[in-house]
Automatic annotation (TrEMBL):
Name listed for the protein in its UniProt record: Diaminopimelate epimerase
Site (Could be important to modulate the pK values of the two catalytic cysteine residues): residue numbering on this chain: 139, 189
Binding positions (substrate): 13, 65, 75-76, 171, 189-190, 200-201
Statement: the UniProt record of this protein carries the keyword Amino-acid biosynthesis: yes
Cross-referenced InterPro entries: DAP_epimerase_AS (IPR018510), DAP_epimerase_DapF (IPR001653)
Species this protein is from: Flavobacterium ponti
Compartment list: Cytoplasm
PANTHER family: DIAMINOPIMELATE EPIMERASE, DIAMINOPIMELATE EPIMERASE, CHLOROPLASTIC
Cross-referenced HAMAP family: DAP_epimerase
Family matches, as NCBIfam families: DapF
Residues of the active site: 74, 199
Keywords assigned by UniProt, alphabetized: Amino-acid biosynthesis, Cytoplasm, Isomerase, Lysine biosynthesis
Protein's job: Catalyzes the stereoinversion of LL-2,6-diaminopimelate (L,L-DAP) to meso-diaminopimelate (meso-DAP), a precursor of L-lysine and an essential component of the bacterial peptidoglycan.
Length: 260
């Protein structure tokens, strides 16, 4: 079978996009999904996303990590899917869609900047040297000083596979504060099992965590990731974070056909 794909990236977090509105994609073929994401034997990506029909909303998002397994929410992937839905004429400038963590609202402007509403957050675990929260995907957030030279893959894997998170694991974010409302972030992603150039649910977790532990008073935070810059804004009241938006570019790279 020949599969037509579209490649997108959001601040360097890259995805294979497939239009599955006709339900033709073999969704349980883990090996095929992993091969499509493989950078030597396939298209190459951090994840694969299916655009599907939804009975009431504009579309449905189905997300797989590059290991071929379906996973929890992907923020950058959601932003790229909004841009892809626009390219496919499914939406014009705004969208409501369903993902694994619930319903999302998004807008896309003329420059391709996608603003994606993320889930509300009210459960945050604060420990001595890290914070843990779920922003659609689970995230461990740790402040460090030597972020530039830090071995994110090695140190991230140690925490991801530690007893702290058991079999399910977690994504691991290392953070350095640059200014009151600017943070640099590097993320080890579960399911990719490596550092990626950006993680949308990760920077969302970092922004909320930094506000919660008092590192910033700002509710609009700039996050510098290896692949660019993202913005997260939110309302914060009584330890509850609502109207959380992840904002940044989502870019079409190329399209093609590959044998399954
Ligand atoms: N790249 C993502 C996160 C994708 C999910 C993650 N790897 C997991 O399995 O938890 C993002 O942009 O949010």
């Amino acid at each position: 079978m020949k599969i037509h794909f579209y490649k997108y990236q959001g601040t360097g977090n890259d995805f294979v996009m497939i239009d599955n509105r006709q339900n033709i994609f073999p969704k349980n073929d883990t090996k095929l999904i992993a091969r499509l994401c493989d950078r030597k034997f396939g298209v190459g990506a951090d994840g694969l996303i299916l655009l599907e029909n939804h009975p009431d909303l504009n579309f449905k998002m189905v997300y797989y990590n590059s290991d071929g397994n379906e996973s929890s929410m992907c923020g950058n992937g959601g932003r790229c899917l909004v841009a892809f839905a626009k390219q496919m004429d499914v939406i014009s400038n705004e969208a409501t869609f369903e993902a694994i963590d619930g319903m999302h609202y998004a807008t896309i402007d003329k420059e391709g900047i996608v603003s994606l509403q993320m889930m509300d957050v009210d459960e945050i675990k604060e420990e001595g040297n890290y914070t843990f929260l779920n922003t659609g995907s689970p995230h461990h957030v740790a402040l460090i000083e030597n972020l530039k030279e830090f071995d994110v893959k090695q140190e991230g894997a140690k925490i991801r596979y530690s007893d702290l998170y058991g079999k399910a694991g977690s994504n691991i974010n290392f953070v350095k504060q640059l200014e009151n409302d600017i943070f640099a972030v590097r993320t080890y992603e579960r399911g990719v099992e490596d550092e990626t150039l950006s993680c949308g649910t990760g920077v969302t977790a970092v922004a909320i965590a930094m506000h919660k532990i008092g590192k910033t008073t700002s509710k609009e935070i700039k996050l510098n990731v290896e692949g660019g810059t993202l913005k997260v804004k939110f309302d914060a009241e009584n330890n509850k974070f609502t109207n959380v938006f992840l904002i940044g570019p989502a870019t079409f790279v190329f399209e093609g056909t590959i044998n399954s």
